[in-house]
TrEMBL record:
InterPro entries: Sel_put. It comes from the Bacteria. Pfam families: Sel_put. This is Small protein.
Length: 73
């Protein structure tokens, strides 16, 4: 194995690990909620255009303010 091949494999693993870590934190912090909304929307409401991400977050935050539940913040 050459140094070039070794470096290429290490870089690929590093990028893969960074992506996995990023996806994990996005899920923990709730950053994937809009992505899940889009998946749900495309399955259940294919004829209607989805709301923009900005509008979705506004609506979601308003819903949270109007319906307080047990959460840390």
């Amino acid at each position: 194995m050459t140094v070039s091949e070794l470096f290429r494999g290490s870089a690929t693993q590093l990028v893969s690990g960074a992506k996995a870590l990023s996806d994990y934190f996005e899920g923990v912090l709730g950053g994937d909620k809009y992505k899940k909304y889009l998946e749900h929307h495309s399955k259940h409401h294919p004829d209607e255009p989805p709301v923009s991400e900005r509008q979705w977050w506004r609506d979601y935050n308003k819903w949270q303010d109007d319906n307080p539940q047990g959460r840390c913040c």
